[in-house]
TrEMBL record:
<keyword id="KW-0963">Cytoplasm</keyword>
<dbReference type="InterPro" id="IPR013783">
    <property type="entry name" value="Ig-like_fold"/>
</dbReference>
<feature type="domain" description="Fibronectin type-III">
    <location>
        <begin position="165"/>
        <end position="258"/>
    </location>
</feature>
<comment type="similarity">
    <text>Belongs to the cytokine receptor-like factor 3 family.</text>
</comment>
<protein>
    <recommendedName>
        <fullName>Cytokine receptor-like factor 3</fullName>
    </recommendedName>
</protein>
<keyword id="KW-0175">Coiled coil</keyword>
<comment type="function">
    <text>May play a role in the negative regulation of cell cycle progression.</text>
</comment>
<dbReference type="GO" id="GO:0005737">
    <property type="term" value="C:cytoplasm"/>
</dbReference>
<dbReference type="InterPro" id="IPR036116">
    <property type="entry name" value="FN3_sf"/>
</dbReference>
<dbReference type="InterPro" id="IPR003961">
    <property type="entry name" value="FN3_dom"/>
</dbReference>
Amino acid sequence: PQVVSSLKRRRLGFCVEGTTFAASIQEIKESASQTRDVLRQHFNDLKGTLGKLLDERLVTLLQEVDTIEQETIKPLDDCQKLIEHGVTTAEDLVREGEVAILGGLGEQNEKLWSFTKKAAHIQLDSLPEVPLLVDVPCLSAQLDDSILNIVKDHIFKHGTVASRPPVQIEELIEKPGGIIVRWCKVDDDFTAQDYRLQFRKCTSNHFEDVYVGSETEFIVLHIDPNVDYQFRVCARGDGRQEWSPWSVPQTGHSTLVPHEWTTGFEGYSLSSRRNIALRNDSESSGVLYSSAPTYFCGQTLTFRVETVGQPDRRDSIGVCAEKQNGWDSLQRDQAVCVSTNGAVFVNGKEMTNQLPAVTSGSTVTFDIEAVTLGTASANEGGNFKLRVTISSNNREVVFDWLLDQCCGSLYFGCSFFYPGWKVLVF
């Protein structure tokens, strides 16, 4: 039985490895076929564009030849017509003189008088000067054959084929309503200046840009739970304009319920996904809570302040064990929060340590972990202890938060006393 079991495990291992090999071969073949198609299409497009550009340049040069030809021939044509007119006039006058000589005496005198009068007015010795051939324009085309060598050098260096993209997606981390995408360089010889991240639903045929910049991590928001998304990334080399090939697409999804603010709360308006709250009324007051206790210990809860209004020391952004109506701030028992001036409150008491004041674009993050039970400090006097880290603008405070009872999940909330504050939660 042991031998049979061992053989079965080996056979299963071979099957798994065989499946992996088959998938690898399939990926190589599909990527090679796709690369061939891309190369053919690209060079066909180049040939068409280059042919069009050469045709346009040829038309332009031929038009220049036509213009020069017409402008330089016209004066010569006018001169030739003037000479021909003079010669014709002289020939006509000669014939008229010959007729006058051959006529009768009375008729001869009249014709000779007419001939003499015409001869006196014609200027047979006044003709335009015929230019020398050296002074006449002689058209030619100046064509630099070195352009062929320049173009040939560029063509021979144009395009590269890589066995793998220079960057690959390294990790996909699910967040409530979002996915953190991390990527890294896999080509040590490639110096990246910028990265470009795209994503799409697996049911869609088109990727869309979601990030361009120098960071190697980005959180993609507005992710529907339990829906597969594909992500890919490419890079632009230092001093280059073109982007590298795309990384192998990676599929990820989030099983976590998106964070949402409570709808219908007076004084606040929400975005369509209910993850952005805007304080738009200074008449009403109170704490805007999350629709459900969707924050769990071990996660990172992030607030990003999109716009700011007039600050007040009673403003608050934070988490609490339960909703308590009737309070105008989270600066109360069973809650931890940060005011817009950077003050940190734990169960309604202000801490000595303080964070920077909140400004437009600031992010405030909460990382909370349950202190291990079974130790003397874990459960003092029936209180439940949580280790809280609050970070903002590269500063952080760490403290223990005592609660009356164990909480598997927490609410989040905010309160602002003046309009203009807009907060995104994820």
